[in-house]
Amino acid sequence: MEDVATPEGFRRDPELVISFYNKLRRNLPNAQPNPAHRALARLETVLGNRLCLVTQNVDDLHERAGSTRVVHMHGELRKLRCRRDPAHVVPFDGDQTEDTSCPLCGAPMRPHIVWFGEMPLRMDEIEAALSDCTHFAYIGTSSQVYPAAGFRHTAKARGAKVLCINLEVEPDPGTDLFLRGAAGTEVPLWVEGFSRTDATREGPRSVRLWLLEPDGGPVDRN
After folding, report:
1. CA distances from 40 to 101, 135, 194, 208 (A)
2. SS3 89
């Protein structure tokens, strides 16, 4: 992965890196939202802005399932970022070349992907949501990639109830509820039950749910 997922690899061989992400982008339509994506979209209709859905994946499956408030902490395949001004991020669905330029300033572009050694995106927003959540769920993640792997500890230390849904990874002692199984099976069941609880009602102690989604590749799903 050093060749295609590091700033050094991009500087060394930009054509190789661009080709790699072009291929991933072209393959996006081959992956479809599963029942977990659709269940989380339904949960957003219940909780609204009290739901913070953070994904480590770079695909658009949540959006295609209907979610509108997704935080992509590792970037998005369907966007490019200006190499001169990182604030210039634009939608992009075609094949990038080394000549693809920023429509806002004319500078060269790069994939809008967080590579190894780079800071994840929207960390201020993520940390604010962590400090305010009453429930924290981590779903399908290996819990090995930092800083995301430490989020559940932060939420727990601030009083949140912690849920883990996973097919393989064992929960740590700070997890309050563990559901073993594939996300496509367990998440819809959990969402259905959670949506019926008093916690989802508006009020001074209303739930703020923080969801951390897998850290695999664009089509890596439990």
Report:
1. 36, 15, 11, 14
2. strand
134: its two tokens: 């009453």
* Angle 171-59-3 from CA coordinates, rounded to 5°: 90
Do 38 and 88 sit in the same domain of this protein? no
Tokens (6 digits) for 12: 């060394």
- Quick one: three-class SS letters along 60-84? CHHHHHCCCCEEECCEEEEEEEECC
188 or 219: which carries more pLDDT confidence? 188
pTM score = 0.89
Tell me the pLDDT tens digit for each residue of 44-77.
Answer: 999 998 899 999 999 999 999 999 999 999 999 9
Give which of 44, 209, 29, 46 is closest to 129, Cα–Cα: 209
Does 131 fall in a domain?
Answer: yes
Token readout for 59 is: 């695909």
Catalytic residues: 74
In the chain, % of residues over pLDDT 90: 68
In this predicted model, what pLDDT tens digit does every residue of 203-212 receive, in sequence order? 433 456 666 6
Q: Determine the structural domain holding residue 108 and report its residue range.
A: 7-29+75-113
Kind of pairing between the strands at 135-139 and 70-72: unpaired
Distant-in-sequence, close-in-space partners of 14: CB < 8 Å, separation ≥ 6: 98
Mean pLDDT of 154-175: 88
